[in-house]
Each structure stands twice: as structure tokens, then as C-alpha cells.
Amino acid sequence: MPPAAHASRRTRLPGGRSRLRAIVVTSTALVLVVGAGGWVRHQQDRERYKEQHCGTFNPSLVTETGRECTGVTDGSDGAAVFGSDLRPVMTAIGAENRNVIKDDDYVTVAFLTPLTSTDTSNLTIGQYVAELEGAYTAVEEANKKNARPKIRLLVASMGSSQKHWERTVDQLVARRAKDRLVAVAGMGLSQQETIDAARKLSKADLPMVGDLITADGFDATGAVDGKGRIDGLARVALSNKDQLTAISKQLPPGERTAALVSTSVTPNGTRDLYTESLNRGFRTIEHLNKHLDDTSDFKFDPRGGPGAILPTISQNLCNTGKTIDTVYYAARVKYLPDFLDALAKRSCHTQPITVITGSDAAALDPKTEALHDPDAPITVLYASFPSPAQFRSPDNPGRGLYNAFVTAFTSPHHGQQFPQEHLTSSYWGIVAHDAVLTAATALHRAAAHGDPASLPNRYAIRNELYALRNDAIAGASGHFGIDKNGNRTNTHTVATVHRLGQPLPATTERSG
Question: Is residue 151, in this structure, part of any structural domain at all?
């Protein structure tokens, strides 16, 4: 090569290296930019996924309209997924479950309920916190005993008014094997969504113990809707018939004229089996139906705005040509304050009036203003479980069981505390505890009667559930059993009539 050419090549080499370095740098930068962009998109996808799943990576949790969370969790997804008011109990559930699964000798029970919300269609009136606390207390106490297997608790929320029951129940059914799910407690209110859920769980051979189900026939017979048996279903609440019968026996003798105010649907537009059952009871139970005035039968649909129609109904009570001194209220407590306010403002408000209703009224604030107006005397009667003071009374043979429950409820739970006021403002904590305790009693009996090297399966637990006779369950509400149709036994010992507002007015004695 000529020297000149060699020199020329030497002079080009630095420029070539510069271009090469530029290409390498540019390529590296491009890779970094592309990588950074991919990382950003990845992070955005993660955040979007979390937004869709209640701020978690659990696909079983779903963020609904209004940012309400529904679905299934074991407490490991964060203590506030269902709302900050549930943080203490969800923290305790997560901690208890972590302890339980350290040993392989455990099964899972799910608590199915409509947790939350501020939704206007919600019928729980904020009592779900005490409900879940009571359910958890039963699990914690069962796990302290020298009995096997231990119990892991799943929390399954159907959301406000139980709109999302089907997806939640489908998740539970899918977890039977992988999560060792052997029973479901809670179940929600007496409405169409609950019976649909019960039928689906029954087909999956999962035993169920309802805590709040009161509608007559809402048991293993399936008589509540006439669509066949619901095998595996039991309940610990007082039926509507139990409640209204207790009231009928305590009404003063004499004449009275009763109007009937009722609704038959939920805010979802589905059947409200609780109110349908009350309606039927008012029409059929002796000492109640004889007082009904056929011309004073008023129905309303909550989707039309109860606040608009209830004043009209109340005023109509003054325009019947008769003295309406009693109202049979077959509707939800959610609408009762508005109705009482309307009664206090009707033109004949000085006429004393008694409102008779079901156990849902236990959530009514005793300080409701309309109950304390001397110029508009109103009395509310309902039947439910005894009050806390009555449970603690020396006259209660089961007071020791109740006191033990209160002690357990208010004791620290993995560093968390449940307020005792949650037991005075609602009976939901008691029935939730007793529902879970019933399931726990059945599963521990199944384990004791089965192979000690195996876990009890859902079929054995279902068998034991219907064999819980002779006061087999030592519940917070007293000793009771489960009959052949899944109903609580010994209801007459706990069905208690409660009065709110003014003293019960006297009635006119019948002539002749």
C-alpha cells in the first residue's frame, strides 16, 4: 500500500471510530428509552390492575362502581380492602390465618355477607362490622380449643344489597379443593339474592349456616320459594313466625284496628323474602290477623322513593273513617325513621298509634326523634333476641355463655380491639358468632367421628350439621340445636318482645 494511502486510512480511522461510538451510544440510549418505556407501561399496567382489584393483585377481589370492593380474601390482601371500618377485624383475620396454616391440619370456612357500604340500596345499616367481628371471635375461640382441625377464615363480600352474589359464590365453589373449603356461614339477608346463593352452594354440596335469615320457609325445605329443597342449609336466627307469635301473645286484649304497610321488593327490584314473610305472618297469625282492616292495606316500592310515598300513606290513616291505632309494618328498618316521622306529622297525630314489625327494627335508633314527641304518641314493638342487659340477667339460664362471649369479643385479637358498643347497638355480632360456632361444632364432630389421619370433608360436616340436636351448640345466645329442616331449636326461650317510644296504649275491650 502506498504511504499516502496508508496515511489516508489512518486519518479516516478516528472518524470511523467516532461514528461507531456514536452508533453504539445511540443504540444503547434507544434500548434504554425503549426499556424505560416498557417499564413505565408495565408499571401502568400494574397500577391499572390494582385499581380493578381493590388496590391488590388478588384477582378474586373486584372494584365495583363507586369503588366498592367485592370478592374473597383471607386477610392477606390488606386490612382495608372492604373499608377502613373493618381494618381491626380484617387485621386479626389475616394474623389468625397465618398462624393456622403453619400446621397442615386445617380446613377453611367462608363467611359470606354484604360488607360495606354507603350505597343507597344497602339494607345492612352499618351492622356488618359487628357481624364480621362476631364471626371472627367464634373462629379464634374454636382454634384455642384442643380440637382438630383448626379453622381458616375466608371473608367473601357480595357488596351492597348483595348485587354481586353470583361471582362471589362462584369463587367459593371454585375454592372447595384448593382452599379446603368445607362450609359457608353468614349468607346475607332474607332476599332473592341469598336464596339464589344458597341454591348454588347447595348444588356444590357445601353446608351453610345462615346468621340473619329469618323469612319463614327459608330453610332446607326450600318452602320460601317453592323451588325444591336446599340441602345443607341451616340457620340460627329467629324466624318471622317466631317473632310475630311472641308479639301476638303480649298484645293487650281488646279491640284494635290495624293497617298494613308493606313492600315486597329490594332496592334491586328483587324479591324481599323478609318483608314477604312478615306480610304473610300478619295475615295468618292468630291474634294479629283478626285486627286487620282490609281497606287500609298500603304497598310501596322502595325504588320509587319511600320518602315521597310514606307521608301520603301516613295521612291516609287519618282518612279511613276508622280509628287506625295499629300499623303492621312489613318493610325494612331502613325506611322506618321516615315512616315514623310521617306518622308524627299526620293530621291525626294526637291519636296514639302502635307500629308492629320484625327483628330488622333492632337497628332502629331508640333516640329517633319521632318516638319521643308527647304530642304524637308512637310505640314500636318488635321481637328479636334479648337485649344485652337481658342476656346478662340472673333470669337468663345462658348468661354464663353470653358473658364468656363478651369477654372473648372484647379481648385483644392479635393486637386489635373490638368495641363492646358493637354488641349493644346490634345483635348481628351474636348471631354471626353462633352461625360460625354451629359450623365449627359440626366440623369438629365430623373430625372426631372420622379418620384421625384425614380432614373432615363437606359431606361429613353436612351430616353432622343436621345431627346437632339436644342443645348441642353452646352459643352466645344460649344452648340450642338444629332440627331436621335446619332451623334453630328452642326459639321460645330467646324470642323477646322489645318496645321503643311511648308506653303501649290501652285498647278497648271487646263487648259481649
Answer: yes
